[in-house]
Amino acid sequence: MQKYGLPLFLLVIAISWAGNLLFYGTQKIEKPLFLRHYYEMPVSLLVNSEIYYIVNKDNNRDVYQFELPNGQPLYVQNNMVKSEYGRLVLKSAMIAPNMLEELQKMEEPLSIDEVKVYYSNGESDTISVGKIVVYPDDVENRTFKQNFGSGSSNGDGSASYTADRDITIQDAYYSNSDRLSDVMNLNVNGKNAGESGVFPLLVKKGEGLMLNYSLRFPDKDVRRFDAYTIRFSYQESGKEGSGINHFILQPELYDKDLRRYVKLRKGGDLP
Prior knowledge:
Helix content is 18%, strand content 45%. By secondary structure, the protein is an alpha+beta fold. It folds into 2 domains: 33-136, Sandwich (Immunoglobulin-like), CATH 2.60.40; 140-249, Immunoglobulin-like (Sandwich). Strands 1, 2, 3, 4, 5, 6, 7, 8, 11, 14, 16 and 17 form a 12-stranded mixed beta sheet that branches. Strand 5 (73-85) and strand 6 (88-95) form a beta hairpin. The longest helix has 26 residues, at 2-27. The protein is globular.
């Protein structure tokens, strides 16, 4: 039996070595892997918002700056670690506020699906970020004064408002409904906004408006790996929709989810 000891020992080592190589390969990222962001917000919220990406622990570059399709630079104030697993690190690049005054000159909504990114080591790349829509600040709510607002990491939130004039609301809705309609519930004054008979809704000056929302992803739903800034809006007859509230939802990428996400992205298996 002793004569088989060394070959068997070497076989175990070889299998272990091959397994480690395979595990290493599944976590190897050649360049930063940017998550999908579904943001819809006024330009004032673009600053201090976060763009998420995954790198390996031995990565030697951070995000230094983004450049929008219109040439507008967005500087990054810091890169923060959000979670880690094995060799994988989820980080976020937070947009600095030093370009806010320039950004607020925009007059039309800006739709962003690709940006140019500059790294701290001098490299640059053009990357897909999902779908980000930025509105001029002046199209946001000017009719309702917010009394309070609350939100939680589990996807629940509410906000109370008082009207400063008589207004008839024809509809209330939220951004990215094409992706979220089966997991999002929006109530207006205690009634489901998607049901018939809720609108038109007359709110007189001094009266209140109450929004309640709930967003629930099933445990294995890959949409929870994306980042969201959801814009709640109301539609007044004959006018463009006005944003009234915004709900920020960070990606749920923790521990082994990081490895699963990278594997899905590499295989092109995410919808």
